Amino acid sequence: MNIPTGWQIDIGLEIHAQLNTKSKIFSGASTLFGSEPNSQASAVDLALPGVLPVVNEAVYAKAVRFGLGVSADISRVSAFDRKNYFYPDLPKGYQITQMDLPIVSGGHIDILLEDSTEKRIRITRAHLEEDAGKSLHEAFDRYTGIDLNRAGTPLLEIVSEPDIKSAFEAVAYARKIHQLVTYLNICDGDMSQGSLRFDANVSVRREDSDTLGVRTETKNLNSFRFLERAIYYETVRQIDRLEAGRSVAQETRLYDHNKDETRPMRSKETATDYRYFPEPDLLPVIITDETIAKIKAEMPELPTQRQQRFIEDFNLAATDAALLANDRNLADYFEATIKNSQDPILSANWIKVELLGHLNRDAVSITDSPVSAIQLGDLVALIQAGTISGKIAKDVFAALWTGETSSAATYIEQHDLHQLSDPSALEPLIFDILKANPKQLEQLRSGKDKLMGFFVGQVMKQTQGKANPQEVNNIIKRLLQETV
Ligand code: MN
Q: In terms of CB atoms within 10 Å, which of 6, 27, 99, 170 comes out highest?
């Protein structure tokens, strides 16, 4: 990526996280994703006359949890406002949000830079609001469909200060937020379902300038990659314009991932355009110190704590612990695996190499892994018990992955893959192999230990990988002592 020199970039992110409550923020309708359009839109979501919103208490606990997770101030009094705008997927003609008294103020997230140093990104605020419905422009010819199932889904909008200075930092920050909200269990983090969406405010200025440049806001980026590409495109576009003596217009833009470019959507509204005013149908919400203390006491384990526990309880290497704790779903998978395998280190290795290898190769997420934690745990237990060799276990894993079998034990039985550890069965075989390779045997006798690998390899070949390598080693050593 080539960004012209002599410029600095200022980026602030607004992140909309869908809170994972069962029902909506102001109605009892379900928030379930993927149902028949408009089957989960209640009278409140449809904005029928005479209905009134009722706040879903669960959203407060989740917002407070986030605030505590980023060391922010929790407002003892917060209130809702109306943000007025007109769009077909917003039947009320306004969005209920928090303007003057957001639930969370301040706080910060520390990100890791490319040179492994930490950088602090300040959080301005996080407020509660409702999601809008969806306009389906492609479902019908010459018509736009409106699906109000999403209308009223609770959102936590997390706003950062313009402390982010590159697309890399923006992605690092966004990933940290994703990690935090999933660990806090306040958002499922499923980007493919729009559970986390990014708006990027980007501006550029000359390196010696102290004032922020005019910014554009690129809305609704729903993947880390699109976030990175959109910021890159905007940065270069703005610098090109300014270097050509033109200006940057303050506007809202959309990123087109097919063309990998942003384009204008509308000129930027200001707060007055939205005619904010206090929501008259809802009272301010008061949160007591006792409530906050209770939520604090019930805070789930955070990534760094989990990593530490993996090192202390399971003896994992720091890098393995960091890798496994980094993603909550992966960490859960690891802990579920060792319930069956009873061997944390071997399980960690199998997850690191085989499982992550297959997941990356086939671009499958851990939650959709065709091999379950129970299945992998069983497989690792079989290796641990010496029932199969590590080499054979790879074949069994592959069979589990493709769905050829659902049980490692059954597969081993069916294909007669039991590890050969019985000396009385292995010895004659090894004896013959030593006899058949006199030159190599002579070298081994004269102290060339490298030849050990050659003979073990020959035995593995003969047994189709079923011999127990440790036992083979022992037998070869013993036979060398005796006369061969
Ligand atoms: Mn918003």
A: 170
